[in-house]
Amino acid sequence: MQKTYEVEGMHCQSCERKVGEALRAVPGVRDAEVSISTRIATLEADDKVTFDELNARVQQAGDYHLQAPSSGVPHQSSGHLHIEGDTRDTSEIEHDAQGEKFYVVHDRRESSLTYSRPRDHVIALEHTYVPPSDRNHGIAESLTRRALGYAEEHGLKVLPECAYVRRFIDLHEEFQPLLTDNSQAKSETSGHAHQHKPSEDRSKLATYWPLLLTVAYLVGGTAVSMFVAQTSSVMSSTGMFGMSVFMGLFFVVFSFFKMLDIDGFAKAYSSYDIVAERWLGWGYIYPFVELALGVSFLLGITATGHAWPIATNVVTLVVMVVGTIGVVNAVVRGRDIQCGCLGTMFDLPMSTVTIVEDVSMALMAAGMLVMLV
Q1: Is the backbone of residue 136 left (phi > 0), alpha (psi -120 to 50) or beta?
Q2: What pTM value is reported for the model?
Q3: How far is CA 308 from CA 224, 241, 252, 286, 372, in A?
Q4: pLDDT bracket for residue 203 (50, 70, 90)
Q5: What is the pairing mode between strands 29-35 and 40-45?
Q6: I need a labelling partner for 91 at 20 to 30 A (CA). Which of 120, 145, 342, 351 fits?
């Protein structure tokens, strides 16, 4: 028996995945398809499965709940853009061949899907970005449909580097023949995991391994530096020396990963940072701020006066406190999104680990200020 419900509380593709996994975990549910664009969940389930049982399971997954659809039978999204009550056809999405992007502008705010052409007959769909005020209106889906339609029209194979595009193709089998051989295999593996294996099954160690490895390198480098400090007169306080080296290396290394894909980082960062979501430019500037702070900490090791280290720690404290606010807000709201701490190179989830990281850096900066003053 098919059951259809509207889903409230979803705001991204991760929410779509979490609701789907929650519904499929209910005994008696054979399959469940959830769409972020239509806010509709369609289930194949036994008659004995009740609404209360389904709704309770969905609420356990996050700040979501079900309700009976306001209109009869749901329909699949046709790729329309729903912006402030307007319905816009995908034909209004422009193609900038020179800039290698598909885009649409609403009230001078541009939403875009960028691409590249790594080789003949292949189009790599790289990043999808929608300004915060225009999200949850199906714009990302329409951009994706337009790009996939373009690929189909021109006989191109698709390399879905963008996570949103990959998930969209996983859920829409009609587009899967467009995939390149390598991405087809990855998509099939991803789709299988989506249907049968919750994200919680992934090892915590595997999830945070890139972050843990990076921190281990930083701790090791700091330990060596502290050993050198104990046998020299580089700095009067070995503890302050160690914290300066650690924070310097921390910012330099983390800025490196962000600079590998500044555009991708800026757009990911804008999804949760309280400054970047209002001004995207901050996302592009932030890696350079981290690099400057890292260099300042390392150069401040041998600074003769206190002005330089004090200024460095004050800026660090402000930056980390502001960053922590956005992270805490995302975690408290149950947003299952990618953490930008290591850029877009690693799929790190936003969690309490991110909060601990930011708070620790803020506390270290505050502690050094106390020691300096």
Answers
A1: left
A2: 0.46
A3: 24, 14, 18, 20, 11
A4: low
A5: antiparallel
A6: 120
DSSP class of 234: S
> What's at 270, amino acid-wise?
S
Backbone angles phi, psi at 87, to 5 degrees: -115, 120
Give the residue among 340, 223, 364, 229 at the shortest CA–CA distance from 280.
Answer: 340
Would you state the structure tokens that stand for residue 271, as one six-digit string?
């999804």
Spatial distance between the Cα atoms of 150 and 28, rounded to a whole number of angstroms:
40
Inter-axis angle of helices 51-60 and 13-24, to 10 degrees? 130
What is the C-alpha to C-alpha distance for residues 344 and 308, in angstroms, rounded to an integer?
Answer: 32
Cα separation, 145 vs 105, in Å, equals: 17
What is d(CA 358, CA 269) in angstroms, rounded to the nearest whole number?
14
pLDDT tens, residue by residue, 11-20: 666 678 888 8
Angle at 124 between CA 122 and CA 127, to 5 degrees: 165
Number of CB atoms found within 10 A of residue 91's CB:
8
What pLDDT, in 10s, does the model give residues 104-142?
Answer: 988 888 889 999 888 888 998 988 888 877 776 788 888
CB 226 within 8 A of CB 218: no
